[in-house]
């Protein structure tokens, strides 16, 4: 009641609304700082000296600025084979999965397509039921696809949610008249996809590409199960080994001084590899962000 | 050329054709589309439906030498073994508690999205949103690594702040306490996922018409009241669908994070059905049939929960909101 009276008296912005503004800004600021602080801490630690990190001197900014962490990372050969493997898997699998998504989404977006219901059902049913980890493993090792780079590229199947997002985009964002007039001009279904539909679907394509790249880059479980030999390991598996190993060293080594030394090396190295492996993904996002507004995400729900 | 010709004879479409003849005609018309979808969907069918055939090993004693169909039937043996396993109750409860606990955090992204939406300064809002998406791009391996480093009592933020605010020596090590696993799991998940989850709600909010807000303003509604009475009802359908989807996955807690956060010390709370399936069925013991049976049990519960929520939602909203 009071608020309403105040509002009438003071014109557009009442004091309760102003208070509300301040509260919201404060909450959002606290939230943003909670997100940023650990990230800045990791970055600062990676630029600090090993001793400063181990002794717990880093609070916000780098202490005893040094690049020894990065030197260690650069000398760590496994990191670079991991990087190369990850690049190979990410690029290859993104292209293959994206092609599947585009083909299925395009055909299912055609309202007159006769098999539409049947194929949609095939896709949607899979969201509720899947064979699970072990039958997949039996199938894939039965096909001889495990423990091989090329095998890893082609295993796996498109994400149905992304497919539905793209299908909805094809349906809603590209006017149906375009198809009709193209048909009259004698454009075939395949030509229509590559010459008209795809160029118009750039926003949704870039967003889905981003999703696929991030998922592949960060995938841990797939390579862990299907790529046993060390030389095939992507970055994530090698990271895990580094992040876990020196933690083990600390407890395993009985001599206190040795343990301390191992830990000193370990921690800076850890911060270094974290930064080196994560920065590419964080840099990717701003490029796609402009496509990220409007009901793009809603596509999956409306479908 | 042929496509144009076919389009010029629409009268054909008016004559009702019988089943197969019509199928054949449409098939010829759509032949390129059929070709495209078959290329696209073949890997999906192979890698998604192929394993479904293998699910039968849950009822067999699978041995690699005998193959899937060659192994002998054992009926419900593996299910009985799992249900009578002394660890069953603990693993099942761990999974259930973690998922119910994470359900508690379900409203957080909604609240955050409402706050983002209510912000006046558009530039700050954009910056804040972008920052809030960042943790989503960090891999689980790195994320758990950061968590372990930060929570280190000797050299992490946690230990450093403890000493900064006058603590002596080293605080207790959360990472190894079984009792803190769930809290760490859930709240670190909020840190990582909340910003990203707001996207769906912010885009739903962006479609709320400004006329509604103006009308509410004229009626003297404060900004807070407008959030409650205008924004919130507008995104209710989105919330409902997200909730149904969430309920369907209630017993399927993600494998990666729990697996990466596990240590021998916290296993009493961190062993979940998914990690158990992996360890027993694939990595350590390679008991393929047993592992498949356990995960089938898990899937059965999930589907049941999904159907119940979906049915309830259909009843409550009079068929307006349902996933299936």
Supply database-style keywords:
heterodimer; A: 303 residues; mainly alpha; MetI-like fold; 16 helices; globular; disordered N terminus; B: 324 residues
Count of DSSP strands of chain B: 0
Distance between the termini of chain B: 41 Å
Give the H and E element order of chain A.
Answer: HHHHHHHHHHHHHHHH
> Number of helical runs of chain B?
19
SSE succession of chain B? HHHHHHHHHHHHHHHHHHH
Largest interface: A-B, 111 and 104 residues
Strand content of chain B: under 5%
Helix share bin of chain A? over 70%
Give the number of domains of chain A: 2
Q: State the helical fraction of chain B.
A: over 70%
CATH third-tier fold name of the largest domain in chain A: MetI-like fold
SS elements, strand count of chain A: 0
Could you characterize what this model shows?
- The complex is a heterodimer of chains A (303) and B (324).
- Chain A is 76% helix and 0% strand.
- Chain A contains 16 helices and no strands.
- Chain A is globular.
- The two termini of chain A are 43 Å apart.
- Chain B folds into two domains: 17-70, no CATH class; 77-316, MetI-like (MetI-like fold), CATH 1.10.3720.10.
- Chain B has 19 helices and no strands.
- Chain B has helices spanning 2-7, 11-14, 19-29, 31-54, 67-70, 77-84, 88-104, 107-118, 122-133, 140-150, 157-164, 181-205, 210-218, 223-234, 236-248, 255-261, 267-270, 273-283, 288-316.
- Chain B is flat and about 70 Å long.
- Residues 1-11 of chain B have low confidence and may be disordered.
- Classes of the chains: A mainly alpha (303), B mainly alpha (324).
């Amino acid at each position: 009641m009071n608020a309403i009276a105040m509002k009438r008296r003071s014109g557009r912005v009442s004091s309760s609304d102003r208070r509300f503004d301040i509260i919201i800004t404060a909450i959002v600021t606290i939230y943003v700082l909670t997100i940023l602080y650990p990230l800045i801490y990791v970055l600062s630690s990676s630029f600090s000296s090993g001793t400063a990190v181990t002794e717990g001197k880093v609070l916000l900014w780098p202490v005893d600025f040094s690049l020894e962490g990065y030197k260690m990372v650069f000398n760590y050969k496994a990191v670079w084979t991991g990087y190369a493997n990850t690049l190979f898997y990410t690029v290859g699998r993104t292209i293959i999965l994206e092609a599947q998504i585009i083909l299925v989404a395009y055909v299912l977006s055609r309202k007159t397509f006769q098999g539409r219901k049947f194929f949609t059902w095939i896709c949607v049913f899979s969201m509720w039921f899947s064979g699970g980890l072990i039958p997949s493993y039996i199938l894939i090792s039965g096909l001889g696809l495990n423990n091989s780079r090329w095998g890893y590229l082609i295993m796996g199947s498109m994400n149905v949610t992304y497919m539905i997002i793209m299908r909805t985009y094809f349906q809603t964002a590209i006017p149906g008249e375009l198809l009709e007039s193209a048909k009259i001009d004698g454009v075939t279904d395949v030509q229509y996809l590559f010459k008209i539909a795809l160029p118009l679907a750039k926003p949704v394509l870039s967003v889905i590409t981003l999703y696929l790249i991030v998922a592949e880059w960060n995938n841990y479980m797939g390579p862990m199960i299907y790529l046993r030999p060390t030389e095939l390991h992507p970055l994530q598996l090698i990271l895990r080994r580094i992040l876990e190993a020196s933690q083990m060293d600390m407890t395993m080594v009985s001599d206190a001084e040795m343990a301390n030394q191992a830990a000193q090396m370990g921690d800076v190295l850890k911060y270094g590899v974290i930064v080196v492996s994560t920065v590419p993904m964080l840099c990717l996002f701003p490029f796609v962000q402009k496509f990220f507004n409007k009901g793009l995400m809603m596509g999956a729900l409306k479908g | 050329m042929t496509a144009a010709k076919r389009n010029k004879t629409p009268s054909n479409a008016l004559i009702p054709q019988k089943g197969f003849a019509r199928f054949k005609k449409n098939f010829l018309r759509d032949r390129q589309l059929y070709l495209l979808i078959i290329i696209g969907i073949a890997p999906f069918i192979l890698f998604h439906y192929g394993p479904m055939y293998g699910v039968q090993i849950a009822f067999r004693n699978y041995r690699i030498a005998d193959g899937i169909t060659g192994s002998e039937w054992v009926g419900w043996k593996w299910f009985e073994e799992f249900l009578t396993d002394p660890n069953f109750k603990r693993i099942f409860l761990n999974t259930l508690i973690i998922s119910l606990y994470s359900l508690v955090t379900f409203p957080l992204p909604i609240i955050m999205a409402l706050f983002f939406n209510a912000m006046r300064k558009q530039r700050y809002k954009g910056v804040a949103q972008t920052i809030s998406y960042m943790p989503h791009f960090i891999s689980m391996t790195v994320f758990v690594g950061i968590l372990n480093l930060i929570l280190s009592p000797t050299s992490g933020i946690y230990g450093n702040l403890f000493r900064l605010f006058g603590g002596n020596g080293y605080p207790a090590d959360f990472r190894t306490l079984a009792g803190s696993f769930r809290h760490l799991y859930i709240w670190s998940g909020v840190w990582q996922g909340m910003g990203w989850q707001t996207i769906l709600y912010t885009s739903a909010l962006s479609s709320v018409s400004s006329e509604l807000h103006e009308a509410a303003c004229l009626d003297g509604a404060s900004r807070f009241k407008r959030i409650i009475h205008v924004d919130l009802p507008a995104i209710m359908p989105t919330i409902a669908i997200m909730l149904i989807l969430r309920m369907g996955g209630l017993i399927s807690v993600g494998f990666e994070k729990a697996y990466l956060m596990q240590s021998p010390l916290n296993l009493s709370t961190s062993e979940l059905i998914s990690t158990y399936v992996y360890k027993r069925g694939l990595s350590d013991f390679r008991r393929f049939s047993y592992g498949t049976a356990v995960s089938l049990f898990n899937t059965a519960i999930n589907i049941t929960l999904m159907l119940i929520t979906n049915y309830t939602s259909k009843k409550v909203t009079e068929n307006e909101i349902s996933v299936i």
